[in-house]
Amino acid sequence: MDNSIQSQAYIFFATLYGGIIIGFLYDIYRIFRYYSKPKKVATFIEDLIFWLIVSVISLFILIFSNWGEIRGYVFLGFISGAFLYSRILSKPVITILVYVVNFIVKVLKCILGVLFFPFKVIAKRLYVPCAKAKKLFKLPFLVAADMKKHAVTILKKK
């Protein structure tokens, strides 16, 4: 009987940790959706991917803890783990993850700024000559349009 109670406690705590992992993944997913701002179809696809990942994790936890047997305390473990995570750990984890994501975005912007700096300098140097060349290439078309307009008025006077 002691072995059975120990194994059931092990299964309960494994599913409790599984609920905490699922809550953590949900926070990551919330942050990802905040930064990506998906449309309806993308939201559907992202939700589908999230639930597939959650299902795979739940299945692995069930298979490795109790050979895939589903009991009432298994559901209780997953639900209470997710609930405990959302009440205790969610706010600090989201704060830390947002800080990390903002830091990574700043670092990437800095790296991209350094990488694209030569292209920006070249684009600034070529802007004025390109604008003048654009006017020169537009000039024959403007002259042709003006000639067409005046030709119509001249031909109507006859």
Any overview of this molecule?
By secondary structure, the protein is mainly α. It has one domain. It has helices spanning 2-36, 40-66, 72-157. Helix 1 packs antiparallel against helix 2 (40-66) and helix 1 (2-36) packs parallel to helix 3. The N and C termini lie far apart (115 Å).
Give me the Rg, rounded: 32 Å
Shape: elongated
Structural class: mainly alpha
Please work out how many helical segments DSSP would assign: 3
- Beta fraction: under 5%
- Into how many domains do the coordinates divide? 1
Helix content: over 70%
N/C terminus separation? 115 Å
Task: List the topology elements.
Elements (H helix, E strand, L loop, with lengths): L1 H35 L3 H27 L5 H86 L1
Helix pairs in contact: 1-2, 1-3
What are its keywords?
single chain, 158 residues, mainly alpha, 94% helix, elongated
